[in-house]
Design brief:
Helices cover 27% and strands 29% of the residues. The model has no long low-confidence stretch (mean pLDDT 95). The protein is built from 9 helices and 15 strands. The protein is an alpha/beta fold. The strands form 2 sheets. An 8-stranded mixed β-sheet has the order 1-4-3-2-5-6-8-7, with helices on both faces. It has a 7-stranded antiparallel β-sheet with strand order 10-11-12-13-14-9-15. The protein binds S-adenosylmethionine (SAM). The site of S-adenosylmethionine (SAM) has 21 residues, from β3 and α7.
């Protein structure tokens, strides 16, 4: 029986890994496993560990799921997730015994630099999630990426370099990944990093947990048709998220606002529903379509839409609010 597809937007925040694997064991994480050769190597090399692979490519996930079944890799689970979402939402501090990153996408252009795995915020959460003595490994075949990573790692007091130099050009006993093989074939140098979590305090990066689903009740003299006619798409940026209110669709007794919520640790495309209640009041809530997670950004989206609604007519009054930073007037 194939295992169900795991996804960081469906897993509990944080996830109980012992329950998911059915046993208590050290956690090893590989970020961006690609064709999955290294996951297979980890599975063989550390049979006593629970091994988690993260990928954003569906093709890679399907290949890995097939390999897990075919090779009976019962100590491995793969998750559809960016590293950033998984590290911030799924893992508790000081719980991971090894993190491996092999040949990460370089994102050369400066305007794409926020997508690089090796950057301050992501390295800070990795240091926070590593247990004392936990290991961090990185390999790349791009000199500029190696230099940038070396600089970041040197400025990371919570990690100690295990190598005599800032990097090594080979790592004996290592299985060769697809990108590594290509680099070797094409005569490019490889740069390997190995660090250990020391006992200095880690940066404080708490697990981002789920909030209560936001919900507003309000009264006002406008009709759904009038509200829909007033809608034009807009974008706004709050402390929590970048919000795009994309479109407004009419239902029988409701309006559905297609909304994009971009937070530093995850992106969600959600539907906000404005419904007429019995008695003529309105409720504004998050549709369960697509299984959204109640984050600070989703609260900001409901608050943003509600403030826009209140701007349409002075007699729109909040009756009840289960939304952060949005309270009815006393
Ligand atoms: C250049 S490939 C390297 C694949 C493999 N590690 C190897 O050495 O052959 C980078 C991989 O990282 C994945 N990836 C990119 N950004 C990611 C992110 N933010 N979180 C998780 N995986 C990511 C990509 O889908 C891709 O499979």
């Amino acid at each position: 029986m194939p295992l169900p597809r795991l996804n960081s937007l469906r897993l509990p925040w944080p996830t109980n890994w012992s329950e998911l694997f059915g046993r208590e064991a050290p956690l090893i994480l590989e970020i961006g496993f690609g064709k999955g050769q290294f996951l297979q190597y980890l599975s063989r090399r550390f049979p006593e560990a629970n091994i988690i692979g993260l990928e954003i490519s569906n093709r890679c996930l399907v290949m890995a799921e097939n390999a897990i079944e075919r090779l009976g890799m019962s100590n491995v689970r793969v998750i559809h997730s960016t590293a950033e979402t998984a590290l911030h939402h799924l893992f508790e501090p000081a719980t991971i015994s090894q993190i491996h990153i092999n040949f990460p996408d370089p994102w050369f252009k400066e305007r794409h630099s926020k997508r690089r795995l090796m950057q301050r915020d992501t390295l800070d959460v990795m240091v926070n999630r590593l247990e004392p003595g936990g290991l961090f490994y990185l390999a790349t075949d791009i000199l500029a990426y190696a230099e940038m990573s070396a600089e970041l790692l040197a400025a990371t007091p919570g990690l100690d370099n295990l190598l005599p130099d800032r990097w090594a050009h080979s790592m004996p006993d290592r299985v060769v990944t697809k990108y590594e093989a290509a680099a070797a074939r094409e005569g490019r140098d490889r740069y390997y990093f190995a660090y250990r979590r020391n006992s200095l305090p880690a940066p404080d990066v708490p697990v981002i947990k789920e909030l209560e689903m936001p919900h507003v009740v309000f009264s006002g003299p406008l009709t759904l048709n009038e509200i829909q006619a007033a809608f034009t798409p807009w974008e706004s940026s709050t402390g929590e998220a970048v919000l795009h209110f994309i479109d407004c669709y009419r239902g029988r007794d409701s309006l559905l606002f297609e909304t994009y919520v971009n937070e530093p640790t995850l992106e969600q495309r959600i539907a906000l529903i404005l419904r007429v209640r019995r008695g003529g009041d309105f409720s504004l809530m998050v549709s369960p379509l697509g299984h959204p997670r109640a984050t600070a950004g989703v609260h900001a989206a409901v608050a943003g839409l509600m403030r826009w609604l209140m701007s349409l007519h002075p007699d729109i009054k909040l009756i009840d609010s289960k939304v952060r930073n949005l309270a009815p007037e006393q």
